[in-house]
Amino acid sequence: MHIFQVVYKYLEYVFIYINQFVLETLAQGPIPQHVAFIMDGNRRYAKDNSISMAAGYLAGAKALVKVLDTCFDCGVNVISLYAFSLENFNRPKEQIDVLMKLLEGTLGELGENDPLVKKHNLQIRVLGRLELLEDHVLRAISKTMHATKNNRGKIVNVCVAYTGRDEIASAIRETVAGSGFPSKITAKSLTENMFMGFPPLDILIRTSGVYRLSDFMLWQCHQDTDIEVVAMNWPDFGRWDIGLIFLKWQSRKRALAYV
Fold first, then answer.
1. Given 41, 52, 56, 145, which is the most exposed site by the fewest CB atoms within 10 A?
2. Which residues have a Cβ under 8 Å from the Cβ of 175 and sit 6 or more positions away?
């Protein structure tokens, strides 16, 4: 066997051992039940690596599979993803077309026979102003949601044509329509009418080092939500980074328990 193959095999075993060690360490403490991601930095990654914008987003999609698998292996039950905001419709048509093609392709693959879906018994929920999307994208969304709607394992919320302010406005309309009385508009009733009401959001993670929420899950980012901003671009974000963030979250939880 070539020396490089030996080294590669050795490093592969080391990685598996470290990954298992991190998972076992995390299992000793509380596990966040709801984690959200603002997957920023795909275009910057493409520019830094001299590849096309489409290739940058594709690298981000591959990173997402690893991130989801790691989070669910750790015990997280719900993942919410900021895939496409209402503001993104203001981008150049070329960028919108790339994003929609990737969204259509990715969701089209996440059927009942997808390995990740089968492993975690995933239910895929696509949330937002879906009526603004083109028919071919809607067909892919409908197919995936229908194929996974009866799954009772983990949940992935994919936010498309979404902003937090629009979600809040929608929840107010639904609450008023359901009760007819302004006095019935409470924090509890609004939460019940949000796209993503439960469980409460434990951690929101944003990549690319930008310190802003970009109108994502504004209602859900309450006083107990940890907001983590990491400097790396989304395609570079991986298992080890998630483990470190979860360990930090556990440390804070333990510290608060003694206050």
1. 52
2. 184, 185, 189, 190, 192, 193
